[in-house]
Design goal:
This protein is mainly α. The chain has eight helices and no strands.
Length: 215
């Protein structure tokens, strides 16, 4: 799939659009926790867009470390005491933080899998043939080969996870749009929620699609 320029450019545009939105929200946010959360989301989208083009492969470990740290940050918010209202408040907020933690961890796993798939091969070949890890495993036996043998199963599970997440966000978006009981002065808030659900659905769909090419 990655050897089709139109699809690669389309996915890149979606990821950069989502990233720009999150960076803009980070600038507008008044609370420090919100600024950090939005900034991390923007950074994740930029890193995934860079991964599509195999940019800065030498920083792969740093990228994984940053995304793993971001996943831990959202876990901390999800399990924080209710008194700490600067973090995830209420059951819905905690669920969102758990999902955001999973998305950060999923992006880290994706970068790691792409790094393993490109070991000993040129970037163009690895992107054009995401299933070439089977041949690599046979040619280069060892710990990396054993990891690659399990990669398709993990990629399939993550494809299902993010595909289901995309469907849930689409349902939330449609339901929000058809609700007629909202108060007039809350129009801006409703638009922000719609935009958030729409971008979350797009981001989850992109991640599901990218993992599908690795399964």
């Amino acid at each position: 799939m990655f050897n089709i320029p139109a699809i690669t450019w389309a996915l890149t545009a979606i990821l950069l659009l989502c990233g720009s939105y999150h960076f803009l929200q980070a600038i507008r946010s008044r609370r420090r926790a919100d600024r950090i959360n939005q900034g991390l989301h923007g950074l994740m989208n930029v890193l995934m867009a860079a991964m599509l083009w195999n940019l800065a492969p030498s920083t792969m470990l740093a990228q994984i470390a940053v995304l793993a740290g971001a996943a831990l940050w959202f876990v901390i918010q999800a399990i924080a005491r209710p008194e700490l209202k600067a973090f995830c408040a209420g059951s819905q907020g905690r669920i969102k933080c758990i999902y955001h933690s999973l998305s950060m961890a999923g992006a880290a796993v994706m970068i790691a899998m792409m790094g393993l798939a490109t070991t000993g091969h040129s970037p163009s070949h690895s992107l054009a043939m995401p299933n070439s890890h089977h041949a690599m495993a046979a040619a280069n036996p060892g710990p990396a080969a054993a990891t690659l043998d399990h990669a398709p199963g993990l990629a399939f599970l993550l494809t299902v996870l993010f595909g289901a997440a995309a469907a849930v966000f689409m349902v939330l978006l449609v339901r929000r749009r058809t609700t007629k009981t909202a108060i007039r002065h809350a129009t801006a808030s409703r638009l922000a929620i719609r935009a958030e659900h729409g971008l979350e659905a797009l981001g989850a769909a992109v991640m599901a699609l990218m993992f599908a090419t690795m399964s």
